[in-house]
């Protein structure tokens, strides 16, 4: 398939689901025009990129998340580092699967380079899910979305700000938010009435080996997610959680990618980081997965 054919295929996918979007400037509904742009009723226009993603930011944004960071994140994800977490999320989605409708819509809010969304939707496909699955990824970092669009053309990818999301109300059956900031007001608005939010947060032992090396004898050497869990619980009538803990042995090349991808390294001293780059190490993965349902709705 040529590049033009691939782009046409991605534009058609956007066109099929154009009712999902709202303009981030005026809030009006949107349509795909000439398979080249997404345009709202008042004429605000967002071009479909050559990679097939759409930049729906209402203003330019600068982030510290660059191409090298997302390349490292993709390599770590491809190594199987997060596979146990993705298996558990897949299991919960299958448990909550609804028989109504022809398509299950999953939004990954803060999707980065798209590995988690792609991995989970692939797992759902292999588990003989009765419904079709539409994966939608959004992130404020354009470099991550560009990479996601190249690697997983079967999903919809958008550069967008979670505080001003480009989606209409009640569009998604599941909203995933994995190791990324949240906006619960927007989650509640975009989530279907019987939908579920899946939020993954670090546990106290997450990457503890790096934390201890980078931040010895400082307050950042330890971590608690208590306040994050309490905030999540205040936004949902029903909340469930599970903790996932395991260790992964990384070689020196994988360690370099792990250090490059984690914001933990941003505050570490260059000397300590330099020493760690050439080490092989066992790394602790300690994650808490939170599941929340909208207030005053039925539960599974």
Main sheet: strands, sense, barrel:
8 strands, mixed
| Uncertain runs | none
Q: Span from first to last CA?
A: 42 Å
Helix content: 25-40%
Shape field: globular
Q: How many structural domains can be distinguished in the coordinates? A: 2
Number of strands: 11
Q: What is the fold-level CATH name, i.e. the topology of the largest domain?
A: Rossmann fold
Mean pLDDT: 90
CATH-level-2 architecture of the largest domain: 3-Layer(aba) Sandwich
Order of helices and strands: HEEEEHHEHEHEEHEHHEHHE
CATH class of the largest domain: Alpha Beta
Figure out the total of helices: 10
Computed Rg: 20 Å
Taking strands numbered 1, 2, ... along the chain, how are they ordered across the largest sheet? Answer: 4-7-6-5-8-9-11-10
**How much of the sequence is in beta strands?**
25-35%
Q: What would you call the structural class? A: alpha/beta
Oligomer: single chain
What would you give as the CATH superfamily of the largest domain? Answer: Vaccinia Virus protein VP39
SSE topology:
Layout: H1 3-16, E1 30-33, E2 37-40, E3 45-47, E4 54-55, H2 67-78, H3 83-95, E5 103-109, H4 115-126, E6 132-139, H5 142-151, E7 156-159, E8 172-178, H6 184-190, E9 191-202, H7 208-214, H8 226-234, E10 238-250, H9 252-261, H10 270-276, E11 281-293
Helix pairs in contact: 2-9, 3-4
Your description of this structure?
With 300 residues, the protein is an alpha/beta fold. The protein has two domains: 1-48, no CATH class; 49-291, Rossmann fold, CATH 3.40.50.150. It is 34% helix and 26% strand. The chain contains ten helices and eleven strands. The protein has helices at residues 3-16, 67-78, 83-95, 115-126, 142-151, 184-190, 208-214, 226-234, 252-261, 270-276, and strands spanning 30-33, 37-40, 45-47, 54-55, 103-109, 132-139, 156-159, 172-178, 191-202, 238-250, 281-293. The strands form two sheets. It has an eight-stranded mixed sheet with strand order 4-7-6-5-8-9-11-10, sandwiched between helices. α3 packs across α4. The mean pLDDT is 90.
